[in-house]
Design brief:
mainly alpha, Farnesyl Diphosphate Synthase, about 70% helix, globular
Amino acid sequence: MTDTDTIEASLHLANSHYENFPVASVFMPRQLRVPIGLIYSFARQADDFADEGDLTTAQRLALLNSFRDELDLLHAYIKPQTAFFATLGDMIKARKLPYEPFYDLLSAFSQDVTKTRYADYSEVLDYCTRSANPVGRLMLHLYGQASANNIELSDNICSALQIINFLQDIAIDFKKNDGKQRIYMCQNEMLRFGITELQIKSYADGEKSVDENWQQFMRFNLT
């Protein structure tokens, strides 16, 4: 596969995946569309390793580790094994991007495979620092705006968007991860508002509509 093939495949993935938002938009500077498409492709593939299909836990972690191994090669200035990472590495070098955000994303996706409950807000926020904030930081570096103040603002926005996504996808996440029923909502907050996992299952299965304590719980999380 040539660099051109890799880039075209990455941009196609960015525009076609069902779990998507506008990526590499025509409203972005033309010179950033390919870098953003490659970053999205990296994150999308890795996230799918953690979530999609009927893979076992061991298979999911092995695929994520293969991405980590490729990053290690790039970071050590050694030629990677795959065409995708060769193209990604050229872009990282040309744009002088840090490697840490890529490793952080893999850490979060690996955690998705093995961790299904979050005790409190600090645990959720720790996950957000690795699942969402790295993307914002990479965008700032691409735009040449990665000041300390901008990074702080970006982290806050990205974490907030991630938490909103959790609240939006409660039923979807509950059915993912090989039937392990992943719940990103804080366990201590669920206890406070009387939310049980049986309720979540009923909502996810369409057997029960939301009640007053559920509405109060959502208001608390959105204010």
